[in-house]
Amino acid sequence: MYINVSFYHQCCICTKIDFVNFFFLLCFRFFSPLSLVPYVTFTGLGLYRLGFPMMAKCIEIGLPALIVMVFISLYLNRYTFTKRPIFDRYAMLFSVASVWLFAEVLTSSTAYNHKPESTQTSCRTDRAGLISAAPWVYLPYPFQWGSPTFNSGEAFAMMAASFVSLFESTGTFYAAARYGSATPVPPSIISRGTGWMGVATFLNGMFGSVTGSTASVENAGLLALTRVGSRRVIQISAGFMIFFSVFGKFGALFASVPLPIIAALYCVFFGYVSSAGLGFLQFCNLNNFRTKFVLGFSFFLGISVPQYFSEYYHVKHESTSPRWLNDIVTVLCMSHTTVAALVAFILDLTLSREDDATKNDSGLQWWEKFTLYNADIRNNEFYALPCRLDELFPAL
């Protein structure tokens, strides 16, 4: 029954995104490089729990995966001479294939037969049961889990989750633009992107996928690793994803990769996304104490506030407040990206807009020329939609 609720929840998300779209379009016209530093940095840094903590659940395959990944992508080219950048572009494939084979050898050699259940679940390559349970061919269809139901309290909680998703997705947009050597993303493109996310989330709810759509932070990190900023690559990847979702046995094969190996990749990908945010510091005056305060304060609260809500909030307020209200507050305040971005934006908006000198310290004078789509002719190259869709969805 939980899945039945998801359709109307995600319909509410689409409605919420329509209103939030307008809000984002206004707010992002006032962003500066200074406020984007904690925003984009915590888009990657806030996902630290998916890195080493998850990798350490099976350290004997997670740590080798991390070492092999770093060695192939950064060190191997020192000892080989190739005309094309092979190792950094295919480092992920080489790393996953080699360590996955190593995990298969450990599993086949009965190394985990007498280990605790949690260790076997994380380390063994034959414990997931995905391949045997997956059908050969499966075509999803609308309302496959039954007729939708609605709960107002849970719908509001899902709206809060959509708000957090928009924040984190937008940070990913800026990171992808940086690593794709594109111009800073104009606010109208951000608005258009979040609108399409709302449409995708609506379809997710209709077809019963439980969760909504969001931008992939790890793909932005993969873009930095491979240095391949091509739409054709994304289109081909989307085709493979559709193929593997329809033909379940093939998709289950790749889904059965032990999670510690994936967590090792996250350590690299999320690190790249975080460094994209730090890259905006080059446009700020780090000798200014206002700049230092905005950065330090937003970074500290971006870590400290979610930590409080993770450890103490439910203990103190679980029995005194409605559950739906607790869910909304918890979802919003446990997001490192949302907290850091809001704090930095408010401080930057109130402290760094007094005169030309303070605007220059926050990088705003350099940034203002990118707030309008037509202000830079290169935007058509980077953000134009294919198949003449720009006529239906024009950018401002």
Automatic annotation (TrEMBL):
<keyword id="KW-0812">Transmembrane</keyword>
<feature type="transmembrane region" description="Helical">
    <location>
        <begin position="90"/>
        <end position="112"/>
    </location>
</feature>
<dbReference type="GO" id="GO:0022857">
    <property type="term" value="F:transmembrane transporter activity"/>
</dbReference>
<comment type="similarity">
    <text>Belongs to the nucleobase:cation symporter-2 (NCS2) (TC 2.A.40) family.</text>
</comment>
<feature type="transmembrane region" description="Helical">
    <location>
        <begin position="329"/>
        <end position="351"/>
    </location>
</feature>
<feature type="transmembrane region" description="Helical">
    <location>
        <begin position="233"/>
        <end position="255"/>
    </location>
</feature>
<feature type="transmembrane region" description="Helical">
    <location>
        <begin position="20"/>
        <end position="41"/>
    </location>
</feature>
<dbReference type="Pfam" id="PF00860">
    <property type="entry name" value="Xan_ur_permease"/>
</dbReference>
<dbReference type="InterPro" id="IPR006043">
    <property type="entry name" value="NCS2"/>
</dbReference>
<feature type="transmembrane region" description="Helical">
    <location>
        <begin position="155"/>
        <end position="177"/>
    </location>
</feature>
<keyword id="KW-0472">Membrane</keyword>
<feature type="transmembrane region" description="Helical">
    <location>
        <begin position="293"/>
        <end position="309"/>
    </location>
</feature>
<protein>
    <submittedName>
        <fullName>Putative xanthine/uracil/vitamin C permease</fullName>
    </submittedName>
</protein>
<keyword id="KW-1133">Transmembrane helix</keyword>
<dbReference type="GO" id="GO:0016020">
    <property type="term" value="C:membrane"/>
</dbReference>
<feature type="transmembrane region" description="Helical">
    <location>
        <begin position="261"/>
        <end position="281"/>
    </location>
</feature>
<feature type="transmembrane region" description="Helical">
    <location>
        <begin position="61"/>
        <end position="78"/>
    </location>
</feature>
